[in-house]
Amino acid sequence: MRVITFGTFDVFHVGHxxxxxxxxxxxxxxSVGVSTDTMNFAKKNRYPVYDQQERVQIIRALRCVxxxxxxxxxxxxxxxxxxxxxxxxxxxxDWAGKFDEFSDICRVVYLPRTPSVSTTAIIEKIRIPKS
Length: 131
Ligand code: CTP
Fold this sequence. Notes:
By secondary structure, the protein is an alpha/beta fold. It has one domain: HUPs (Rossmann fold, 3-Layer(aba) Sandwich). 34% of the residues lie in helices and 21% in strands. The protein has 5 helices and 5 strands, in the order E-H-E-H-H-E-H-E-E-H. It has a 5-stranded parallel sheet, sandwiched between helices. The protein is globular and about 55 Å long. The site of cytidine-5'-triphosphate (CTP) has 15 residues, from helix 1, strand 4 and helix 5.
């Protein structure tokens, strides 16, 4: 079974690790689409702290990850699922219901997010207040 998932994975944290480990356990090959800096800017109006090559390097180094590619656009999800021949699409449950349209080509699974951790919360916590 081939599994695929997508995300920004900026300022890598344990919530990211846990979803990737759980995704990998659903099959025997995990492909991860890491969203590009441009795509993030378009979505959140800010660039990630770590650039796309750094984020790809980190994800690629994980034992639970088999393949990494750059996700250039949200609109290409179907294409990525097809070219990676994924049987299962995994997303965190913050996306619950949002990718059901792909259930014609793969199983769509939403896993519970790890509580109390997010990139946004980490950035807020370490931000030095401007005087
Ligand atoms: N994720 C998770 N548990 C968390 C945080 C993220 O399972 N506590 C999952 C998301 O559901 C997603 C993947 O990790 O499937 C990548 O999430 P991403 O948006 O890159 O991370 P966040 O920490 O949610 O980033 P942000 O705060 O910028 O939204």
